[in-house]
């Protein structure tokens, strides 16, 4: 049945997202800030890169860090050259002065680069050969500064001073995201530095990028970009936004190109090999979707009643107006919500457990399972699901709005299925598996296995009966265990379960990694009373990275009593699959 909105609370899921949310509230109307806000996904992927996670943990191999610092000279040279070219194109004295100041800062950093490198034990007498990822970005930047812009005029066709001014804007647009991303990552890493104290080896470097002076430099760059964008057309702003996003992607490529020689916990897919299987499970309602499927099916039932009235025919057992059907659904929903809240109260122990108590939790969940089955029986007996056309279900599913990034996650995961040696499963209370199938398209059933209830049909019209295969938390965890048991007969496995509600609790806890989407109050209340801890995913990864000692370290395991909270599918994507 439909879960109440009151079961959701403001999210405290991720440090990364909290910092980004703060950034998103600032500078409304600013083109630079708008470009940054639209690059949130790229910023998350940068945070979850192996290099940054290892750096945040304080356990990054020193030679890897030295290589990173050494490569910085190529960025500085390209920036100084691009600033010079942009300054020549700018026609505003204030803009020229701002670019000149930024160029001087880049030249100063270039001048002292050798001494900074020597501080980190880098041999500056050796030639520093740029890696392919740096070359890709620097060539991209200098091509733009030369007027080679896709969608704009090419070199040799800069006809007016105004055309030159656009080149300055495009160039600064391709440089700004690097500064803003570095400032963002500096602040993100600074949060974890606070827990490490003076024993953190990269403290000085992080303090530089999290400093007020570096933030001021990033803000100065954004102000310059805003100034250069004022006179541009909508199409020209679109070009800058594309360049901004491309620069962000190239920055992520640079982070991912760093030679990581140590075991690392991200992306999760790398923690298994041909000797074992990766099994990813997900709930459907409000984990994948924005609306609960019972509410969606209720709307289809109301539409069905409306069609019956208009056509003069009736697929239902007795003629009912759409308003009668709507009132009936509202009554069921209200009853469900009230009884659900009482049921949750009955699950709570009188005293909070001092340690994780899974046995007690499972026993208490028998009450919740009974409640869910009773609620389904009332709906079936009412006949409200009778007469729904399969084609209406499929059309609705095809248009159903999913959580941002959900479909992209599964699309990429399925494409990588062969390489990953992985299986993907949806476990859902949804009354109608056909609705779920239509949401995820017409790919092979073997790509994404749907485990849910099914409508009974006569022809293509529902009879009102449900094949009741998965109605309760106990049904879910039984299916979860069965799937893993089948996988385990052939190979070892690692599992991830993604869910959002109290009904997902048992599966979340038994998976090697349980990830909670959103912020269900009932899930937290029941979990915490039984000794379950809820940890934001990103800080949790950093803690796990500190625990990794060797390649075969098993830092993730089920029934640890710890669940990880994520604020978006982008975070889950970055953790499980990487960029």
Report on the structure:
Residues 50-147, 170-257 form the Thiaminase-2/PQQC domain. It comes from Musa acuminata subsp. malaccensis. This is Thiaminase-2/PQQC domain-containing protein. The chain has 579 residues and is an alpha/beta fold. The protein has two domains: 15-260, Heme Oxygenase, Chain A, CATH 1.20.910; 277-577, Rossmann fold, CATH 3.40.50.1000. 58% of the residues lie in helices and 9% in strands. It contains 24 helices and ten strands. The protein has helices at residues 15-24, 31-37, 40-47, 50-57, 62-89, 93-111, 113-119, 132-145, 161-196, 203-209, 212-229, 234-256, 293-311, 322-347, 358-382, 390-399, 406-415, 417-420, 433-439, 473-488, 505-510, 521-529, 537-547, 569-576, and strands at residues 276-282, 386-389, 422-427, 449-451, 454-458, 461-467, 492-499, 513-517, 533-536, 562-566. The strands form two sheets. The protein has a seven-stranded parallel β-sheet with strand order 4-3-1-7-8-10-9, with helices on both faces. The chain has a three-stranded antiparallel β-sheet with strand order 2-6-5. A hairpin with a 2-residue loop joins β5 (454-458) and β6 (461-467). α4 (50-57) packs across α23, α5 runs parallel beside α8 (132-145) and α8 packs antiparallel against α12 (234-256). The longest helix is centred in the N-terminal third of the chain and has 36 residues, at 161-196. The two termini are 36 Å apart. 41% of the residues are buried.
Strand order of the largest sheet: 4-3-1-7-8-10-9
> What's the CATH class of the largest domain, please?
Alpha Beta
Low-confidence stretches: 2-6, 15-19, 21-26, 152-157, 314-318
Helical content, roughly? Answer: 55-70%
CATH-level-4 superfamily name of the largest domain: HAD superfamily/HAD-like
User: What's the shape?
Assistant: globular
CATH topology of the largest domain: Rossmann fold
Compute the gyration radius: what is it? Answer: 28 Å
First-last Cα distance: 36 Å
Work out the strand percent: 5-15%
InterPro entries: HAD-like_sf (IPR036412), HAD_sf (IPR023214), Haem_Oase-like_multi-hlx (IPR016084), Thiaminase-2/PQQC (IPR004305), Thiamine_Salvage_TenA (IPR050967)
Protein name: Thiaminase-2/PQQC domain-containing protein
Domain Thiaminase-2/PQQC: 50-147, 170-257
